[in-house]
Design brief:
This is Acetylhydrolase. Pfam families: PAF-AH_p_II. It is a single chain. This protein is of the alpha/beta class and 515 residues long. Helices cover 37% and strands 18% of the residues. The strands form 2 sheets. A 12-stranded mixed sheet has the order 3-4-1-2-6-5-9-10-11-12-14-13, with helices on both faces. A hairpin with a 3-residue loop joins strand 13 and strand 14. The relative contact order is 0.10.
Length: 515
Amino acid sequence: MRSMEIVLAALNLAVLVLMLRRKTRTKGWAAAGLAGSAAALLTQVWLEGARWELIPLYAILLLPAAVMLRRIFAREEREVKKPRLSRRLLAGTAALLYGTAAILLPVVLPVFAFEPLKGPYRVGTVTYAWTDQTRPQVHAQNPAKRRELLVQFWYPTDEDAAGAAAPYLSDPRVFAEAFAGNEGVPPLLFDSMRLVRTHSRAAAPLSAAKREYPVVIYSHGNRGWSGQSTFLTEQLASEGYIVVGIEHAGGTNTTVFPDGEVMPFYADAGQELDNGAFDRLADDVWVPDVKFVLDRLEEIADRGGGRGGPESGGSDAQSGSPGSAEAGSGISEAAERFAGRIDTERMGIVGYSMGGAAAVQTLLSDDRLKAGIDMDGGFYGSLRAPNGIGRPFMLISADSTFRPDSMSDEALAQIGASRSEYDETVGELLERQAHAADGGNYVLTLAHTDHTSFSDAPLYSPLLSAASGLDPRGAHAVIRTYTEAFFGKYLKGERVDLSALEAGTENDHTLIKGQ
């Protein structure tokens, strides 16, 4: 719960107790309770915003109001007989149950907050729409429509950078409806996500502390979106990286373009046990998306030509649109902020799930990426790595993702698959990644985690992690530590005096370093 929600809860529960006690159920106490409850409610709504999960707490305000009205309009004060013990017990039990429900509801559906950033920079963010004129848009009814993506940047800004904290979701209502539809639950469960704020400052200027910054591409999971792992992307930006999150339209929960067009999720893979469907999705859509963004980043860097000084990242840059630049590529606005400030000789990639597969395939085929991390993604795509990736690489996996019992018999029955087919499919994926650590690379396995642990999803509700015994913030801390150490060594060239890159086993993770 947020700070004013806690104050509101404490005060209103105290009011609830006072109004239940006969000695304090007077006009004076009711007036005091009503004033205090109303003040707390108005302050909470003003500072933090109202949400439906707090309605039971808000409603306690009615209790002292009712007591006051009863006392005011009573014709005469009559001696109130002491109620029977059974009635008092019943009233007390009802109040206890009501108060418990009023507290639990905003706790299990919180307005969650991200851990404080630990890097030396504050973080800015801006999103652009870029269009690849060489490829058609996926699932477009008009064959002439070109491939359009949203690309979100997180980047270092200065301590005194102005601007409001950016929202976690740019279109929360659309997101909630799409996410709920995909999960088969009511959209109301995700309503409070409209109030979640990140640590990033919207459209803040790029820090002038350094001429150029290394780049980390972020590729999300299937049915995710560019901000799916904000716990990680913001932290990397605070450490001095320009993080570029690709929103693979059609493979997201939903994508809302600047012109208002909404592109839903298309299940191009995953409806049956078929590694080949994911292979094609990686080869035909996700990897070309990554390479297109790499092309555009090089173009933006080249536009610097000596003009990418400290003032080039002015805060007046606007979000891009398909027709805002040459050939509809939509990069002119990005160039206003980042021209000459991107170090294309130090670019890496981190991908989650399907984005991890895209990371591996791009590392195997594009020398512009110097290092990469796959977070719990199968090695989907046409390229194989029988002798390792061939450049610095880390595979981070949950200990439960590719186990024989990762899918129940019921889940397999829903997609018409047998246990033997599942074992064969997973076995092929395990064989593909068997040499991930070859050449001095790393395989990190996190204990007590699942596939969602690499995203922000476990923060949405403690119910998502408590039932399975997961520690989402602990997992996030380990992921951040290893990712920072890895890119610090292989992109920044830093000396890493951290055990994070030394093979060994800790309580919550195991690291294997290949030969």
